[in-house]
């Protein structure tokens, strides 16, 4: 009976909180925006240092877990083996953790840094091009994935080796005791995880919808307006709720596998039609700067001078990736049974990092090349990055096969979009059904509908940014949950015969 009550507590309290935030953000959007922005400004101004240190700590411990004496321990019984092939596993990881963000920002972010760098670097120059790739690699490279891996690794260990529930709170049990982990403190952690996941997925739904609408407008002249955006959300909702209901081994797996091949094909063709030598040079030089300046860049923040660039880019990203850590971590844990700790870290941290950096080098260079070779006026490039959802299609349109590449990019975006959303539905259903590894379909449908309705409401109210910002405020508390997770995981690993 106690378990049933606990299960309902997380579910109902989460629904109430999500409902309050939804009504506030939609009906009173102005006041919601003011509060969200003020709170985020305090966090990034007064606690920027903590975000930077936290990401380095997460990375350090993940390296230790992988290459220390515990690396050969399996996430399951000693004779367990992976449920999914490497290709399927990578596809699910990538689609859930980064896919839709990389398609959205792959062209626009490096181009923005190239045109509007910081630290007194000359805009639209070789120096700003170098700055663009180093910082893109920093933002989409090893630190975000190490952050995801902290929760993913610990939860997979507790779920499959210790036979615990698929809840965030179980990871803290060795540290705070079973009573608190199953009591109010554990419930607070699980509810925070639900809220961060809802906010993250709803924001991605909205951003993805804007880019899909922009793509259809650019390619086919479909108008950019609220009616079209609502139609897109409804169609995508059927796809992601349907694939989530069909289960991990059917709908989610099929969409993820297919999209992995589509994305690899798109990447390859964009490399071929783009500036090949310049792209290879940009990748090699960017990786050199990224690796060589890793610690100074990762910990860079000004003591007295302006930190607005760091606040709006790096600190925003770190807060955003920490906000996504519960969602991505739970999903990654769910699909990683049977892997060794070392295999998990290499697969979850190293492989996606390399893929993300290659993606950034190819797509980022498509845009920067237009400026460096004078193929497109700087003013036009500035217009493209001012609306990043359009930038991808504007830049692709300047190259051979531009229309076809834009069409394939649109398909890939939709598929990544669906993969992120159905992963989110699956995780929300797990967290709100007492950690059930295969949650009921009714719960998946409910969370899917809630996400779609919230995304539509926010677009009608005039923007997604406030919800994204408020989720970062909630996620601030997750820094401490993740520190606790590391301590608890270290404690329980010491009992293993390594």
TrEMBL record:
Record's GO cellular component terms: plasma membrane
GO molecular function, one term: transmembrane transporter activity
Primary location: membrane
Membrane-spanning intervals of the chain: 9-28, 48-67, 87-108, 142-160, 188-212, 218-242, 254-274, 315-332, 344-366, 401-425, 445-464, 470-493
Keyword Transmembrane helix included in the entry's annotation: yes
Cellular compartment(s): Cell membrane
InterPro entries: BCCT_transptr (IPR000060)
Keywords for this protein: Cell membrane, Membrane, Transmembrane, Transmembrane helix, Transport
Record's bilayer topology term: Multi-pass membrane protein
Family, as annotated: Belongs to the BCCT transporter (TC 2.A.15) family.
Listed PANTHER family: HIGH-AFFINITY CHOLINE TRANSPORT PROTEIN (PTHR30047:SF7), HIGH-AFFINITY CHOLINE TRANSPORT PROTEIN-RELATED (PTHR30047)
Protein name: BCCT family transporter
Organism: Dorea formicigenerans
Taxonomic lineage from the root: Bacteria, Bacillati, Bacillota, Clostridia, Lachnospirales
């Amino acid at each position: 009976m106690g378990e049933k009550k606990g299960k309902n507590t997380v579910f109902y309290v989460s629904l109430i909180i999500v409902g309050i935030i939804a009504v506030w953000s939609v009906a009173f959007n102005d006041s919601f925006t003011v509060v969200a922005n003020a709170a985020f400004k305090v966090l990034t101004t007064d606690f920027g240092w903590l975000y930077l240190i936290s990401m380095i700590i997460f990375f350090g411990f993940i390296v230790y877990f992988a290459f220390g004496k515990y690396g050969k321990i399996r996430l399951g019984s000693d004779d367990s083996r992976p449920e999914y092939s490497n290709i399927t596993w990578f596809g699910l990881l990538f689609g859930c953790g980064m896919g839709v963000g990389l398609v959205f920002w792959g062209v626009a972010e490096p181009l923005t840094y190239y045109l509007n760098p910081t630290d007194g670097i000359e805009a639209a120059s070789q120096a700003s091009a170098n700055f663009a790739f180093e910082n893109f690699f920093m933002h989409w490279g090893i630190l975000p994935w190490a952050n995801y891996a902290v929760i993913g690794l610990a939860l997979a260990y507790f779920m499959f080796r210790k036979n615990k529930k698929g809840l965030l709170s179980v990871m803290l049990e060795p540290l705070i005791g079973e009573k608190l982990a199953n009591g109010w403190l554990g419930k607070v952690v699980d509810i925070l995880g639900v809220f961060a996941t809802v906010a993250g997925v709803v924001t991605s739904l909205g951003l993805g919808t804007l880019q899909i609408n922009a793509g259809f407008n650019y390619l086919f002249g479909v108008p950019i307006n609220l009616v079209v955006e609502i139609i897109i959300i409804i169609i995508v909702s059927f796809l992601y709720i349907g694939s989530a209901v069909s289960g991990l081994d059917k709908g989610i797996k099929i969409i993820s596998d297919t999209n992995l091949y589509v994305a690899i094909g798109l990447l390859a063709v964009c490399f071929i039609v783009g500036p090949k030598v310049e792209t290879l040079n940009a990748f090699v030089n960017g990786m050199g700067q990224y690796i060589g300046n890793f610690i100074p860049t990762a910990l860079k923040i000004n003591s007295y001078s302006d930190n607005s660039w760091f606040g709006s880019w790096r600190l925003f990203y770190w807060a955003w990736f920490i906000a996504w850590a519960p969602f991505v971590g739970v999903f990654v844990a769910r699909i990683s049974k049977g892997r060794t700790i070392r295999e998990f870290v290499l697969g979850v941290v190293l492989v996606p990092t390399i893929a993300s950096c290659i993606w950034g080098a190819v797509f980022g260079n498509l845009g920067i090349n237009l400026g460096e070779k004078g193929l497109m006026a700087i003013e036009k490039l500035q217009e493209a990055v001012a609306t990043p959802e359009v930038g991808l299609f504007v830049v692709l349109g300047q190259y051979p096969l531009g229309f076809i590449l834009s069409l394939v990019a649109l398909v890939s975006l939709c598929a990544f979009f669906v993969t992120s959303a159905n992963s989110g539905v699956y995780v929300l259903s797990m967290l709100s059904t007492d950690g059930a590894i295969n949650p009921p379909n009714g719960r998946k449908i409910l969370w899917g509908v809630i996400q779609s309705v919230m995304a539509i409401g926010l677009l009608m109210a005039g923007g997604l940014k406030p919800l994204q910002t408020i989720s970062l405020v909630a996620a601030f508390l997750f820094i401490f949950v993740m520190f606790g997770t590391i301590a608890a995981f270290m404690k329980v690993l010491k009992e293993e015969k390594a």
